[in-house]
Amino acid sequence: MELEKRDRVTGRMTTGHEWNGIEELETPIPRLVFYFLGATILFSVICWVLYPTWPLGSTFTKGLTGFDQRNLVTEQVARADAERAAAWAGKVEAMSYAEIEADPALMEPVREAGRTLFVDNCAACHGVNATGGPGFPNLTAKSWLWGGEPEAIEETIKVGINSTNDDTRVSQMMAFGRDGVLAAAQISDVVTYVRSLSGAEGDAARMEAGKEVFAANCVACHGDDAKGSHDVGAPDLTDHFWIYGGDTSSVYTSVYSGRQGHMPHWDTRLSPLQVKLLTLYVHTLDGAPN
Amino acid sequence: MVSQLTISERQYALATLLLLGLGGLAMAAMGRGDPIAVHGYIVLIFAIGLSFVVMAGYYAPEPDKTRLSRYYDDPTKVGIVLSIAWAVVGMFVGVWVAALLAWPDLTFDQAWSSFGRLRPVHTSGVIFGFGGNALIATSFHVLQRTTRARMPGQFAPWFVLLGYNLFCVVAASGYLIGVTQSKEYAEPEWYADIWLVVVWVSYFLIYLRTLARRKEPHIYVANWYYMAFILVVAVLHIVNNLAVPIAWNAAKSYSLFSGVQDAMTQWWYGHNAVAFFLTAGFLGMMYYYLPKRAGRPIFSYRLSIISFWGITFLYMWAGSHHLHYTALPQWVQTLGMTFSIVLLVPSWASAGNALATLNGAWHKVRDDATLRFMMVAAVFYGLSTFEGSFMAIRPVNALSHYTDWTVGHVHAGALGWVAMITFGSFYALVPWMWKRETMYSPKLIEVHFWLALAGTIVYVFAMWNSGIIQGLMWRTYNESGSLTYSFIDSLVAMHPYYIARAFGGLLFLLGALVAAYNVWMTIRQSRMDAIDAGEDADIPLFARDAVQAGE
Amino acid sequence: MKEFFHRKIERNAIGFVVAIVAVASIGGFIEIAPLFTIHETVEEAPDMRTYTPLELAGRNIYIREGCYACHSQMIRTLRDEVERYGPYSLAVESKYDHPMLWGSKRTGPDLARLGEKYSDAWHVAHLINPRDVVPESVMPKYGWLMRNELRIDDLGEHLVAQQAVGVPYTSEMVDNAVQDARGQAAPDTDAASAVAERYGEATHVRAFDGDPSRLTEMDALVAYLQILGKLTDKANQQAAAVEVEEQ
Ligand code: HEM
Ligand code: HEM
Ligand SMILES: [Ca+2]
Ligand SMILES: [Ca+2]
Ligand SMILES: [Cu+2]
């Protein structure tokens, strides 16, 4: 029943079978296929000889190169560290903040490295341009909670604020309303007063009353002049910058419920060099979009 | 359609639906407060709905014996319609999720409409809904034609087709209500997985029993592929889905494997879902419809043999290329990489075999958009397998993995190969099934072809660009040896490409809508003027008495 | 010769089926089985702990919402990944992950070392609307997490199923699963100290969503996110050991 037939177009024989009109030609496999197969198998065998490949029960062939992806990346990272150290990072580690900032050539790699570190780690809260957002301070405002010196910034980055680090900076804005220290009217008064410090309009009588409330309750942390205190991380209330917002209701909430911002600590996640780079980056921010 | 079933088959159907309904009722009643109850109701409604259909036709006269000298094509017809419906739904959701990545708020504040839940609706909708129905529909058609035997019985094909669609509905609705195992392409939970095993075994038995009745001594290549698809998917599915449910009346389960072993099992599954679902199955389709439409013999029988066994053997080693540089031991990665490279040979052999089969029919390719769909599919098959083998090389994968490059590769295969071969085959098959000379509008096939091609090209180029840019940005170092870009920088750079991709996908979706309309009108026409093109015009006359009696 | 052989099996359906299954089984078997027998596949980490019931519930929400569709949890052995995200991921770190969530697409950043990187409050704000805190983000909003009470009545069953697949929960942990879930998100209660006793002092006991009076899905998810990469310190230790070696 295997009738040999010849295909009219190619002149080739068919296999003689036919399935609902479909036939197959007896075309030999093109040579090229075997060359191609040989080449890919050769490539494979070379890989098998050089690299770990075949399992053998409780172990596997290690390959002639002894190649191991983990060792390789560890080496690469170490080499990159060494190269950076030699080129510029060693100087950063050794020099003081003032010296580094005085060296524009050195500041260039610092800023480059610092920006990527900042955006990958800090921008989630402080924004790509470090301008902050509701609940997260603007780092370009020069309105520092804990001081604007590099050493203070470095400390904040290392230990965090209200973080899980044992040495964390601790800051707490008390919940005057919720804890019943102040009555609602008193809070409204002090809010009016506090907002006036940065130029907001308000009822004069309330402001007067608020000023008294402030003197009695707030100066301990925010200072007589309301310019804040770097010792307890209390913000300056006279500038135009607000962490939680300067509208009446936000300020009211700050006073009523208190605030306790959480800044994570980075000493276990980032290296001392990385912290230093970030400190320099943050310290020299000008707020211009980059 | 029910009238084509014998009375005993109608009784089987009702009994099965009763059991299914009871199962659904049990799930609904016992799973109170658990999402499994929702699925219970879906199963119950499904069973009741179908019972009405069967009951409505229950007292119709039994079909006469002459049916046994014809092929049984009703399930194929329904399968085609279901496949196209899923295509429209799945691709619509595809366009939606594509848009979400460009405009993330283009959605409702509802859990079901968030990206993470819609994305698997898209992938399952197109792969299992569109692709799976197309495979079942065409495999029934091809199987009968190439064995010259009618399928044994009329109940089992319906059980497979409709049971499979129940699985798809449970899968897709599950993601929307938060039921998922998270294993890519195997997301449905344990009870859906078990149901699929039952359906799949029935599918396999139909295949075996029809082959046993065949009038052709040799099994045709298309059936090798369809069989590999059925068998290997069964093995993969069962192993990868092994899991322990938290309770018999709860949806949630924990997979048996964990960590690195789970990762390897998952991508052994995932990669071979690509290989045996999206590749082997559709190669089976191609091996029938392409030579048939071109009117040409297969270029080389021997090439078919080595491609088939090459693909069947080699693909199963390649899954670890999804895990390069991960915590998977490196020896497995080397195996995955090298076997992926060798795999290119049988892959290109298949693509070459298909294209060379067109020798002597290229003028038809030029004039006939249906054949052109198949030709372009073969080209994209060659392209995406080359790309796949390339991406399987470790250093290349270092760049491409986790990026849109993978998504580009996926859609070169999914749009260019899977969808194109399916639409081409449907355009050939639909007139045969509904006894028409041609499709309702050959012009619209032409329109669809260009929409599909343009959509694919826009999609794939957008993703190649974004993927490579993304991969490069992640690893670019500036002169001082620090990372140049942050992750967010790369995210921002993706935006224009995400818009382009959504646009390309929209073109492709429009094409699918055109296809749906064209098929619909073809069916309507055939209903309106029921011409008798001589029963089963596609059966060669001599075969007629050769079709073996059913039952 | 070969042809002849093939024409024969082409005529035998059962033979063909057997041949396909045999040929297709080899690769998977050789690649998967040894992962259970080669000891060094999974590193030793004596400090490895299991997820608390609350974290496990959070992990299930992570799965339910499909976060894995955009986030990987697998830092590859590549220089840029190690420098960006931290030490490369070890196999042992996902030893109790049934299933693993390594992911295959990074539309968002890798999360393998996310634990304690950000504050709970940030996560809550971010999940409610990512664009409030990261304007460039394309991540979906997950507002309902804050609205939905967490389902905890079946947590005991979850732990039993976990036991069945090999996670070493004790029967005490199973019995107390529900209280432990409550306690972990309600600091300064008796239940809270019991959690720390059972799962280790380093367990985070906090009002993750900011409201200790309600146990929400947000609590669970944030508890899970904050433990990512923290079940064992092995990866850090390994990286530190290398540094010491070099000096
Ligand atoms: C209208 C056309 C389509 C559009 C707009 C579309 C869009 C998308 C999008 C946006 C994703 C998610 C990518 C990401 O997470 O970044 C995706 C994933 C996917 N799509 Fe499509 N798609 C379309 C058609 C198809 C078709 C026809 C198939 C299969 C037959 C398919 C298979 C897949 C698969 C397998 C994935 C997962 C890829 C991965 O995990 O790497 N898509 N698609
Ligand atoms: C020789 C053939 C092929 C090889 C060697 C291959 C290889 C690959 C590689 C290396 C990846 C990327 C894995 C990663 O980095 O995550 C991949 C992903 C993928 N490929 Fe292929 N590919 C081949 C053919 C195809 C074809 C024809 C399709 C048809 C649609 C396809 C569909 C996919 C899908 C859906 C994924 C995404 C998996 C995921 O991450 O969810 N591949 N393939
Ligand atoms: Ca599953
Ligand atoms: Ca994927
Ligand atoms: Cu693959």
Descriptive terms for the model:
heterotrimer; A: 290 residues; mainly alpha; Cytochrome Bc1 Complex, Chain D, domain 2; two-stranded antiparallel sheet; 11 helices; 47% helix; C: 247 residues; 2 domains; 13 helices; 51% helix; 0% strand; globular; binds protoporphyrin IX containing FE; binds calcium ion; binds copper (II) ion
Structure explained in plain terms:
Chain A is elongated. Chain A has eleven helices and two strands; from the N terminus they run H-E-E-H-H-H-H-H-H-H-H-H-H. Chain A is 47% helix and 1% strand. Chain A has three domains: 47 residues, no CATH class; 114 residues, Cytochrome Bc1 Complex, Chain D, domain 2; 74 residues, Orthogonal Bundle (Cytochrome Bc1 Complex, Chain D, domain 2). The longest helix of chain A has 26 residues. Chain B is 71% helix and 1% strand. A two-stranded antiparallel sheet of chain B has the order 1-2. Chain B starts with 6 loop residues before the first helix and ends in a 23-residue tail after the last helix. Chain C contains 13 helices and no strands. The longest helix of chain C is centred in the first third of the chain and has 25 residues. The model of chain C has no long low-confidence stretch (mean pLDDT 95). Chain C has 247 residues and is an all-alpha fold. Chains in contact: A-B, A-C, B-C. Chains A and B meet through helix 1, helix 2 and helix 4 of A and helix 8, helix 9, helix 10 and helix 16 of B. One protoporphyrin IX containing FE (HEM) sits at the interface of chains B and C. One protoporphyrin IX containing FE sits at the interface of chains B and C.
